[in-house]
Design a protein that fits this description.
The complex is a heterodimer of chains A (about 100) and B (about 200). Chain A is mainly α. In chain A, about 70% of the residues lie in helices and about 0% in strands. Chain A contains 4 helices and no strands. In chain A, helix 2 packs antiparallel against helix 4. Chain B is an all-alpha fold and about 200 residues long. Chain B has a single domain, classed as Arp2/3 complex 21 kDa subunit ARPC3 (Orthogonal Bundle), CATH 1.10.1760. A two-stranded antiparallel ribbon of chain B has the order 1-2. In chain B, helix 1 crosses helix 3, helix 4 runs antiparallel to helix 5 and helix 5 packs antiparallel against helix 6. The mean pLDDT of chain B is about 90. Classes of the chains: A mainly alpha (about 100), B mainly alpha (about 200). At the A-B interface, helix 2, helix 3 and helix 4 of A face helix 2, strand 1, helix 3 and helix 6 of B.
């Protein structure tokens, strides 16, 4: 099955993915800020007085689902679309290697 | 649940990396034997889980949760393709978005791609069909609870953490046992939807 055929076969799923990515800032940015979101793991680490080693050094310009120069909500949505595209591309590449 | 760099000591990092690599080797070998249809679901399911994980549901008290998707991957694709699906998601999260550390990637894979997927898969498989939606619900719930427990054990055993297992296990396992209820509900909802639309996906496992 070629990539194009595979994409056609999953058109509905891909539509859902795009819609979810576009809607994601509502949850991941707006509502998160509203309640002052923290990961349970970070909370636990905070209690234990532990610091994240690579908080200040990072290997990617897209750290924490932000895009430089874009407001958080837009960066988050772009990150969602971009990330999904990278996952799809790597996934199909991996399937080719699996043969 | 993504452990950042600096939370685990080098020994814990090495051991968890080795375990994840062994599992990855087995998974790639076994995945080759899977059917084409199932294989071709991997990229799409991974992309869907990736975006689903970005939907944080805030909870009162300054925390929130998001769908993990590992149990769903295990139920739909089995343990090997399920592992590879979650691995793909975690690789992109770590390398492209700095969600989880590089030295702790092995541990994160162990928790979310091995423990969570296997738990989801085996709980689903162990329960008889008459349990209906309770199968994916329990699979989702326990997958998150046990992944949280594994995470707590790793942190507790790591010399990097000042507190031992007596603190880390109750904190991580306790939290995720509660959060897992929502994972169960989400897994059951997606499963029920797919069962109606694409029975082949949910039938043969």
């Amino acid at each position: 099955m070629g990539v194009m055929r595979a994409i056609k076969g999953h058109r509905k799923a891909l539509t859902v993915i795009i819609v979810l990515a576009l809607a994601s800032p509502i949850f991941g940015v707006y509502l998160s800020e509203l309640v002052g979101y923290h990961e349970p793991l970070d909370l636990a680490a905070g209690l234990l007085g532990l610091e994240e080693l690579t908080e200040k050094i990072t290997w990617t310009p897209l750290a924490d689902y932000t895009v430089p120069g874009l407001p958080d909500w837009l960066g988050y949505a772009v990150s969602g679309l971009l990330g999904a595209a990278v996952v799809l591309a790597l996934g199909y590449l991996f399937l080719k290697l699996l043969k | 649940m993504h452990i950042p760099d600096g939370y685990l000591d080098p020994v814990s990092c090495t051991i968890t990396y080795l375990l994840a690599l062994v599992f990855a080797f087995l998974a790639v070998k076994r995945a080759k034997l899977e059917g084409e249809e199932r294989k071709h679901l991997l990229p799409v399911l991974a992309a869907a889980i990736f975006v689903a994980q970005m939907l944080n549901w805030p909870l009162p008290g300054g925390t929130s949760l998001h769908f993990l998707g590992a149990a769903l991957a295990g139920i739909l694709l089995g343990p090997w393709l399920g592992f590879l699906t979650m691995t793909l998601v975690l690789l992109v999260q770590t390398l492209v978005f700095h969600d989880g550390g590089i030295t702790t990637l092995g541990a994160n894979l162990l928790n979310m791609a091995v423990v969570a997927v296997l738990t989801g898969y085996y709980v689903y498989k162990a329960l008889p069909e008459r349990f209906g939606a309770a199968r994916p619900f329990l699979a989702g719930w326990l997958s998150v609870a046990l992944a949280g427990l594994a995470c707590g054990i790793e942190l507790g055993l790591s010399a990097q953490f000042l507190y031992g297992l007596a603190v880390t296990v109750p904190v991580m396992a306790g939290w995720h046992a509660v959060l897992g209820v929502i994972e169960g509900a989400a897994t059951a909802a997606v499963y029920s939807y797919l069962r109606g639309r694409a029975p082949l996906l949910t039938g043969s496992r």
